[in-house]
Amino acid sequence: MNKMSSHQLNHILNNKTLGSAEIVRMLNSYLYSIRNNKPLILKTTSIAEAKLGHFQAINSYLKNLHSCLSANNKSELIKFLKKFPDKEDEKIETIFNKIYPELKKMRSVLTLSRSGTVLGILKLWYKKNKNFKVVVCESRPKLEGRLMANELAAEGIQIELITDAMMSLYVKNVDAVIIGADTVLSNGNVVNKVGSKALALLCGEYKRPFYVVTAQSKYSRKKTYRSKSENPDEVWDKKVKNLSINNIYFEKIEKKFITKIFTE
Questions:
Q1: Which of 35, 127, 203, 262 has CB atoms 3.0–4.6 Å from 208's, for a disulfide?
Q2: What would the 3-class secondary structure string for 76-142 be?
Q3: Active-site residue among 164, 182, 233, 237?
Q4: Domain boundaries, the chain
Q5: Does domain 92-262 bear CATH number 3.10.180.10?
Q6: What is the pLDDT of residues 174-214, one digit of tens each?
């Protein structure tokens, strides 16, 4: 593996700002670039599984990829890698067509963090309707919402970026909240970026629909989820006596708080 290739892979494996669906796309693109080197593909998938195995989308992708590798059919492997992005786009379009009857009644929505599925759906919505607004929570501590807001604004969509702490001021003024999902558990509960449950509870308080949009590759057989603490320096790198800092990225949203999950 040359230095450029190694750098590219490390960028994928250590990305903490993009959604898992987008990380899968990047991983697929990298694997396509090394499609003629099966030993390196096997090594890469092993590393990806160890590093990114907590993402359900990664697990689903690698399972399908391993089926191609096990068949020992190079043409099928290349076909899988080449067609993967188009199939992902088709999934987003299918999800959009399912949620559009609801969207066309709306003038504004609120979302949190950065989801490739939400991003794709909002872009498709803008092709049909130029007159809606999206409120985006910036999503501490990695501020993925800023990336989301910037990309949507570049498309021409009217965006308002807010801090996560301001969400209660805005939920009552939008028509719905739409989020993506990191994982959909087998009992119907959803795991997503911290702040998602607060939004769901606010939607219940203000009688606003709380929608989840996600591909079936995010569905898991697991029923439970345990939160994991990340680097506290991302919240605040100051060392103070008697002060502890916690940094949790994801949380569970019980299905009773979710209006509907839209998938392909």
A1: 203
A2: HHHHHHHHHHHHHHHHHHHHHHHHHHHHCCCCEEEEECCCHHHHHHHHHHHHHCCCCEEEEECCCCC
A3: 182
A4: 3-89, 92-262
A5: no
A6: 999 999 999 999 999 999 999 999 999 999 999 999 999 99
